[in-house]
């Protein structure tokens, strides 16, 4: 039962990231406004949750953390590349 609750919680958190990801996919010009520090901190926090989940044998927590890290890495990459393109264009 606890794994089911863990997967449900993880899915809710992932679903909260998807609208932002979809928006930036559809509007690449907005990527340069992405807050990099927020994404870095969220990735670090999810890495800690991943380690905790692995140590405690919480499969749901570990898998949801990995999935969220991947989505956040995409956002971070988009933000960095958009800023790099702006600097190169200037």
Quick take:
The protein is mainly α and 90 residues long.
Tell me what you see in this structure:
- The structure is a single chain.
- The chain is mainly alpha-helical.
- The chain has one domain: Monooxygenase (Up-down Bundle).
- Helix content is 86%, strand content 0%.
- The chain is built from three helices and no strands.
- The protein is elongated and about 55 Å long.
- The termini are far apart.
- The model has no long low-confidence stretch (mean pLDDT 91).
CATH topology: Monooxygenase
Low-confidence stretches: none
End-to-end distance, in Å? 55 Å
CATH architecture: Up-down Bundle
The helix tally amounts to 3
In one word, what is the shape? elongated
Q: Rounded to an integer, what's the Rg over CA atoms?
A: 15 Å
The proportion of residues forming helix, as a percent range, comes to over 70%
CATH class type? Mainly Alpha
Largest sheet: none
- Order of helices and strands, N to C? HHH
Task: Return the structural class.
Answer: mainly alpha
How many structural domains does the protein architecture include? 1
Overall pLDDT score: 91
Notable features of this structure?
about 90 residues; single chain; mainly alpha; about 0% strand; 3 helices; Monooxygenase
